[in-house]
Write a structure and sequence with these properties.
α1 runs parallel beside α10, α3 packs across α4 and α6 crosses α9. This protein is of the alpha/beta class. The strands form five sheets. Strands 1, 2, 11, 12, 13, 14 and 20 form a seven-stranded mixed beta sheet that branches. A seven-stranded mixed beta sheet has the order 7-6-16-17-18-15-19, sandwiched between helices. It has a domain of 182 residues: 3-Layer(bba) Sandwich (FAD/NAD(P)-binding domain), CATH 3.50.50. It contains 16 helices and 20 strands. The longest helix has 25 residues.
């Protein structure tokens, strides 16, 4: 794609979007499709934000941060005709949990094979597993209308808002008594305790429980993580519920396909264009000042970066009401994740399940037990990275050979826990980066002993790196924790959860707004639709 830097209308825009992440680009595409003059400003040399692909090592394309797609809204794919602009999703069908003793566990795309795998551990669990899937599907479909629409304002007497609240009430009233109890439990319980009510095998429960802790500074036994499990369970690809996959060419191709769509509708996108601050006059955002000194004016400014950086970094507390400042001072970011990307000269082989079969073409979770996961959290609670962390591993080159040279492979390792707030201070992360990377590789090598000798290159990203390089405050991959007090009409703050901000003409469209994080594009789409509806652009 061509990324331009022309000022085609004398420097005056209908909308300037800060940040070329996938949500900012989605917002730009919808606004441009509606005929608005849109400018996107990205401070890095490449588009995508945390949904980015880069050739960090010659011949190897890393999905540097985000690495799988599941939540990308199908209507966005359709509305923006993303396949026409290069988007191709390759299904990720297996889930493999290696063990140091025994054959481990594989959940296959074939239901009968999965049932037989689980029956080795527990006949009861094998019988319950499909029932659990149906129950989660029902819960997911209850939440789907919530994540695909702006949150209602529960304090409003506007008939339109009251109607939205009534529709939500109707959804809940449509649940059976059993489903209602289950829904309340999902909103309040820990992921481990919730799964305890269904299953007895620790080997099965552990890799299922981790969906409740990804990107949160909580443990699998922390209340509230059952909802986060549901949030990650709602994956869709082409309407297929609970489907996950890779983007051909790396995760950045999702962002680039949205960017191409935005450009096709007339949006202007500029990289190497950092924003120093938002210009505010008489309580209204009038444009932006770039780090190179340029000033651009616009009817509306839309921030795709996180709430803390938007309000405290680009706007300034002096332009904000005190109540919002107080709330944002308490807004929980608390990055707890890291990432290790490897270029390999051969495939790893797992001792518990030798061979390079279908089991390693999907999701590989180092999560041998609930206690293992909770001990990893215990270290993080006291300001240290986990020496034996939870790892989520994928080898995208097995499914998409374009990301590595022939016979070579890319390995992507998501790591929990890596707390931003070390006991020595966040600034000490550069001193601990190598030790953190070593802990990750050492842990994985226990299960795949030849791994270390196959590594050609290693990229280690700590929460400090995620903040410095990608603009994620405190390294939080979701622009704020997905805890219940920071969701729905409370995200990012009570009274300011529908993309508008107290600074007139300033809007938000990033993951720090409803419905939250993940590569879904919904915040960008919903923000654009809201602005168009209110004729803000």
């Amino acid at each position: 794609m061509s990324v331009t830097n022309t000022e085609r209308n004398g420097g005056r825009w209908d909308a300037i979007i800060i940040g070329g992440g996938h949500n900012g680009l989605a917002c730009a595409a919808y606004l441009a499709k509606a005929g608005r003059r849109v400018k996107v400003l990205e401070r890095r040399h490449v588009l995508g934000g945390a949904a980015v692909s880069e050739e960090v090592y010659p011949g190897f394309t890393f999905s540097v941060c985000s690495y799988v797609v599941s939540l990308l809204r199908p209507q966005i794919i359709r509305d923006l005709e993303l396949p026409k602009h290069g988007l191709e999703i390759l299904p990720l069908e297996c889930a493999f949990t290696p063990q140091l003793e025994g054959p481990g566990l594989v959940r296959w795309p074939d239901a009968a094979k999965t049932r037989a795998e689980i029956a080795r551990l527990s006949k009861k669990d094998a019988d319950v597993y499909p029932q659990f899937g149906r129950a989660m599907g029902r819960m997911g479909r209850l939440v789907k209308p919530i994540i695909d629409d702006p949150p209602p304002d529960p304090t409003s007497f506007d008939p339109r808002e009251l109607l939205k609240l009534k529709k939500l009430g109707d959804l809940v009233r449509g649940l059976s008594e059993t489903e209602l109890v289950r829904f309340v439990k999902m909103m309040t319980m820990s992921s481990a305790d919730f799964l305890d009510e269904w299953f007895e095998s620790d080997v099965l429960k552990a890799p299922m429980a981790v969906s409740g802790i990804i990107g949160t500074y909580l443990g699998v036994r922390s209340p509230g993580t059952a909802y986060v499990l549901l949030h990650h369970y709602m994956g869709e690809i082409d309407g297929a519920f609970r489907a996950w996959g890779f983007s051909r060419g790396g995760t950045g191709q999702i962002s680039l396909s949205i960017a191409r769509a935005a450009e096709a509708y007339g949006a202007d996108i500029e990289v190497n264009a950092g924003v120093e601050r938002v210009k505010v006059k008489d309580g209204r955002a009038t444009g932006v000042v770039l780090t190179d000194g340029r000033e651009l004016d616009a009817k509306a400014v839309i921030s795709g970066v996180d709430p803390r950086l938007t309000f405290f970094g680009l706007v300034g507390k002096e332009h904000l009401p005190g109540e919002l400042v107080s709330h944002l001072d308490r807004y929980k970011l608390r990055g707890s994740s890291g990432k290790v990307n490897l270029a390999l000269d051969r495939l790893p082989e797992f001792t518990c399940r030798p061979g390079n079969g279908l089991h390693i073409k999907g999701d590989i979770a180092i999560a041998p037990s609930i206690d293992y996961l909770e001990r990893a959290y215990d270290e993080a609670k006291y300001g240290a990275f986990s020496r034996r962390p939870y790892l989520n591993v994928v080898i995208p080159s097995l499914t998409d050979p374009t990301v590595a040279p022939p016979g070579k492979h890319v390995m992507s390792i998501f790591v929990q826990y890596a707390p931003y707030h070390l006991k020595e201070g966040a600034a000490d992360w550069p001193n601990q980066r190598d030790a953190f990377g070593d802990a990750v590789v050492d842990t994985l090598a226990e299960y795949a002993p030849g791994l270390k000798e196959s590594i050609l290159y290693r990229q280690v990203l700590t929460p400090w790196d995620l903040e410095k390089d990608f603009g994620l405050t405190e390294g939080n991959i979701f622009h704020g924790e997905l805890s219940l007090e920071q969701l729905f009409f409370l995200r990012p703050a009570p009274g300011w959860a529908r993309y508008r901000t107290p600074v007139r003409g300033l809007w938000m469209c990033g993951s720090g707004t409803h419905p939250g994080g993940g590569i879904m594009g919904a915040p960008g789409k919903l923000a654009a639709e809201r602005m168009l509806k209110e004729r803000a652009v």
